[in-house]
Amino acid sequence: MPIKIPKLLPARAILEEEKIFVMDEDRAITQDIRPLNILILNLMPNKEKTEGHLLRLLGNTALQVNISFLKMASHESKNTSAMHLDQFYTTFPEIKHRKFDGMIITGAPIELLRFEEVDYWEELTAIMDWTKNNVTSTIHICWGAQAALYYHFGIKKYELPHKCTGVFWHHIDDYSEKLLRGFDDIYLAPHSRNTNIVIEQLNNHPEVKLLSSSEEAGPFIMSSNHGKQIMITGHLEYDAETLAEEYRRDMDKGQINLPLHYFPNDDPNRQPINKWRSHAHLLFSNWLNYYVYQETPYDWD
């Protein structure tokens, strides 16, 4: 089944070329079914690229999904055109009266700032508080995951001596969790961040479950006890080239952060291979099915 997106969204052409089933508003209104309403708070600098990453995964299930994009009213984006934001994005005051079946809060390259130093922290905490009663389940990615752990559960982050970047092996810590249904016992996933989580606080918190982790990268997938908040410290949504693009961006800044286990033979001149795609699709389809579709009311009113 398709995802419903704005008719003129640039990511549509890319998704259709990859045979991802998308549908615009004109076609969607002819179908007499209850679609899922998913809100994406996109905090990444290159918003169009992140749109493609997430829509690719949300569009690969048997569910019809309506997508709404949210931006921060208290922050001016420097890497995405105002025309794109005005055309496809809304702000929190415009949607806070609504209910959403699911939500995704992305990461942002601001891990080295204290949470309270982020210029939109107050607005973000208002949104995260709003999700408790207005969203069935929310996925938080990378910095968004650390922000959620800090705001909802008081679990702090700490700065790493070196950037955690690369593709790492992960194992399952909780086989009973439906989010990981169908996962291999060990699997690969990308990470890209400068901070990590205080593992002792995580393990000792009664409201948070560690579902999957990595010996090299640390805690990866966590969930609140009822799956209302899901925290993912890495980037299963990344495509094969994303870490290479970030590596070149860091090099331009004079930072040498070669992603581990990513380039063939650790040679940045060679084409990287996507080794995590199937688990990315599996995680998002499990989330949409078990945590959103199976749990959300047919009629919120």
Automatic annotation (TrEMBL):
The keyword rRNA-binding does not apply. Keywords: Acyltransferase, Amino-acid biosynthesis, Cytoplasm, Methionine biosynthesis, Transferase. The gene is metAA. SUPFAM superfamilies: Class I glutamine amidotransferase-like. This is Homoserine O-acetyltransferase. Coiled coil: none annotated. GO terms for molecular function: homoserine O-succinyltransferase activity. It is found in: Cytoplasm. It comes from Cytobacillus eiseniae. The record marks S192 as: Important for substrate specificity.
